[in-house]
Amino acid sequence: MAFTTAGLSGCAIQPAPPATTVAARAIASSFELEGRISATDGERAANGGLQWFHSPAVDEWTVLSPLGQIVGQLVTTAEGAQLRTADGRVEHSDDTAAMLHRLLGVAAPLDGLAYWVQATARPGARVLDTDERGRPARITDAGWTIEYVEYAGASAEALPRRIDAHWGDARIRLIIDQWTPLN
Questions:
Q1: What are phi and psi of 96, to 5 degrees?
Q2: CA 172 to CA 101: how far, in whole Å?
Q3: Does the predicted model carry a pTM greater than 0.85?
Q4: What is the largest CA-CA distance in the chain?
Q5: Rounded to an integer, what distance in angstroms lies between the CA atom of residue 82 and that of residue 64?
Q6: DSSP letter string over 132-179?
């Protein structure tokens, strides 16, 4: 990130805002969600559908083109990851985060995403702002800023409907159309 001297002249260095206190949100250990995703790394961009099954033992991500064809399917377990692409190729790796990066085109923290979609700060993350109902409005996690633009309802327990996350030039937008907690 480039800063110019003129842009900083006269600015006092401010400490980071304190983490906002929010009521503990229940987190589902297993869920399914369907939605739409767009991702960019600042040079390339892609968008389409997303189907995600999450459990403590396995994550299964299916990314669809805007017309509904499968672009890729990633299955991750404690033993590693398997990525199946639209052309039928299958790749295996112990580096599950790198395989998710290949699928999405953005290096998002795999172990944080289940928290992100549930508007919950995992250990080490900070809630920076809350909305009028006490739900997270903005969280920082592993260098990312996650903004909860819209929730699926008015209740304090409502899950996010639209999430915008960014880290430098990397951006992810997720619109969740269907959410199913499984536990």
A1: -65, -35
A2: 12
A3: no
A4: 57
A5: 17
A6: TTS-EEEEEETTEEEEEEEESSSSTTPPEEEEEEEETTEEEEEEEEEE
Same domain, yes or no: 79 and 103: yes
pLDDT along the chain (183 residues), means of 10: 32 42 71 96 92 96 94 94 95 92 88 94 95 96 97 95 96 96 86
> Could you tell me the two tokens for 132?
């009028």
Last residue of a domain, one of 64, 89, 107: 107
**Rounded Cα gap, residues 36 and 176, in angstroms:** 7
Which residue segment(s) compose the domain that 75 sits in? Answer: 48-107
Among the listed residues 3, 37, 45, the one whose alpha carbon sits nearest the alpha carbon of residue 170: 45
Tell me how far apart the alpha carbons of residues 158 and 108 are, in angstroms, rounded to a whole number: 24
86 within domain boundaries: yes
Q: DSSP labels for 47-94?
A: EEEEEEEE-SS-EEEEEE-TTS-EEEEEEEETTEEEEEETTS-EEEES
Which structure tokens are listed for 79?
Answer: 């033993």
Q: How far apart are CA 124 and CA 139, in angstroms?
A: 11
Phi, psi angle pair for 179, to nearest 5°: -130, 130
